[in-house]
Amino acid sequence: MADVIRIHQKRQFSLNEAREVLPVVRRITERAVISYRNTRIRLDNVGMNPKECRAVEEELHDHIAGWAMAVRKLGCEVKGLWIVDFDRGDGYYCWKYPEESVLYFHKYEEGFASRVPVSMLEFSAEEDT
User: Model pTM?
Assistant: First the structure.
């Protein structure tokens, strides 16, 4: 039987918990990326009819908004296009599509550009690594 994933709850993650939720986040993100790319191809081929362009642009927005809402339901935070943060309590474990795992961390006051590998973090005895 599969584990139950709480939804609609802001939460803090251990590294193991972030990595356990990641397959769901990856599936949601992969679907959104594929839909977005296919729609983007249509936009490139629309032929500059303003009404059609607007409709396709709205569809692109809907792909991103739907992805962000689905990710937030898992208790994660969306920090940019295809970037997901997992709150650790003193900062965030950080993942960006198409990375294979949760491999980075940054403090609350820092951002994506300041990510460091989680292997550089010191973990307490209670923290699962």
Answer: 0.84
